[in-house]
């Protein structure tokens, strides 16, 4: 049996490629081609089980990183179509030099086309291309005509999709010069594969790709004359396919993501609404369609842009990359005339030719397409919202729907004859099979154009219903280029000045604040539930249950379970309540719901959260999703609570260690400490009045008061402070006034005050001054709270037998009103936080015309 296993493990994993003429990696004799020889040797040295394990590690790494094209709120099981393959695409030096030169040539030519189309339109005057092809393009915005774009570079950063028609004959399939997608996946693919399969890289000097984001940042900085320009990445604000990409790039370049609602145009200048007010913006890296940038310049009922942005750009007060209108270079109908366009503007022969493309507006071409429909791929001329508005369709149409739309609106559709791509090995289900792929190559223009040494291979989808080359893929591949080819051609850059500190936007601050609140609420609920479960409710006598019932109601009140707080008698079994409190995603304050809300908040500001923090939160989310499907028992719920408390402590520790302690960190802390203070008061205002009603001064320990201290995470602190059994007034003193007790309201308010004080710097010393004064007033209120008058640590408190608890002098109604009033005062801090940092209503109140439209 052992010999059989050894023999099978040594079988050639590429035996199916022997005699495969269309393979890019092997010749017709099954011998690996030179660029692939080291890769094939390494893979052949691995057993089948080893390769399977490595592929699982790749899949797990991709899942952890959230490499996805879908809504951030979707479940990961259905939201992650990406799959990174073990076998990379490897290009020879000669092959890459041709691709690189062809990419730069085409980028320069089509930039010149965009400049010409928005100015003299010589290409139309000379009838190089049909007039209607350019002028009917939905991406062509006449409103932008006559605007001077620096150096004529409409698309400073773009990409092209290529297909290997065989023997290194690379053809251009599509342009992505408006808002190219996928750079983040290129960088992540290289990092993940090199970690999971480092042996592949030991025998080959592969050109690095990590520095490309730095070149992109330098290009963006060069768009402004300022030494340290304020750069933003502008996104639509809608969760969708490009979110991971945008967050990844923004984090790598150290810039913020902004939505149109985060910005304001005043006096033809663009400003970001930050926690410190308005800050001017110098450069915008746009990730939205040109037509959606400015609803005034380009009226569009389906777009929510920034009014006045195009005028600010026209005046030269802000740079926009890529320039508005650059999407005209993505017109697929232009591919039929790409050779003419290159000759028109570059006076050169094309290095890379386009695949055969037919524009259906031409009768002869339309007839040809109808006769050869089975061999052609039907596509819209642009992936543009305006096109779908005109045609009445939507992205992702089925093939039958696309054909119907093309018959009604042939002028907006093309058909392409895309060669079957050269086959590459793909590792799937434990075997290597042949699969074609499309190469996306990225460039950056400027004084020294740069082509990313590599790119991204998206493997062909079998039986994809739209038959279009879209973002759909059956897997990704890393792309290798010999380091020797690009080592000496890398652009030289002088050191840049240290970056200026810019404030975070109000939207980012608010998202972090709420994430902190939700995480703290989940931790409180888990810990408090665990405390209650340790009392073994199901084994208590009825009288004992009535004793602890106020504590259970207090926890229910703190989590919004009003139906429980209204009950006069305790239930026989609390298991349904416990399950709902922990795992019911529809209960707004349940642990699972809170974790989900926190995850959504942090996903929206992913660029400022460390990957390590996100990984911990993803682990918690997956764990809760699995637990929600299992059979629920008390023991299982107790274990779940312990795990959640432990994991949230890991998140807090990871955040403290991996996140810069700047404004982002402080707003996360503000949310945590505010929620902790509110949560403690929510428990006390329900529990204390009911405990006082049932309170009987006895010599033995008051079990319900001890349990209350456990609920608030302060039993050990109480023992160290008072060294006595539990009394109501001492508990109040500890939880309200304890300066060194993490669960006390005093501790939370002082940490809030400190966090807010760090937000002021330079000329902003008064930032949040009114709010800090409100906190100081609250600290005075705590110091004179009726149930906690005696200073903590007084000697007479140590003699429990001689001093009557001060709480006995107050009725339950009085105590309830006192705690409710205190809770309202603390909760009022939220309104002030929102007015000052998030909505800026305090600024509107003081200067109502400050943000008025010009």
Set down the secondary structure blueprint.
Blueprint: H1 2-9, H2 37-44, H3 48-65, H4 76-79, E1 89-90, H5 93-117, H6 122-125, H7 131-135, E2 157-164, E3 170-176, H8 183-196, H9 199-202, H10 212-221, E4 231-234, H11 243-253, E5 256-258, E6 263-266, E7 269-274, E8 277-280, E9 283-286, H12 309-314, E10 319-321, H13 338-346, E11 353-354, E12 356-359, H14 363-371, E13 377-380, H15 385-391, H16 399-408, E14 413-417, E15 423-428, E16 431-444, E17 450-451, E18 456-459, E19 476-477, E20 479-480, H17 483-486, H18 506-533, H19 542-558, H20 562-565, H21 575-583, H22 591-603, H23 611-627, H24 634-658, H25 663-694, H26 703-711, H27 715-722, H28 728-737, H29 745-757, H30 769-783, H31 812-838, H32 841-846
Parallel strand pairs: 1-20, 3-11, 4-5, 4-9, 9-10
Antiparallel strand pairs: 2-3, 2-16, 6-7, 7-8, 12-14, 13-14, 15-16, 16-17, 16-18, 18-19
Helix pairs in contact: 5-13, 18-19, 18-22, 18-24, 18-25, 19-25, 22-23, 23-24, 25-29, 25-31, 29-30, 30-31
Task: Give me a quick take on this structure.
This protein is an alpha/beta fold and 854 residues long.
Features:
single chain; 854 residues; alpha/beta; Rossmann fold; eight-stranded mixed beta sheet; four-stranded parallel beta sheet; 32 helices; 20 strands; elongated; disordered C terminus
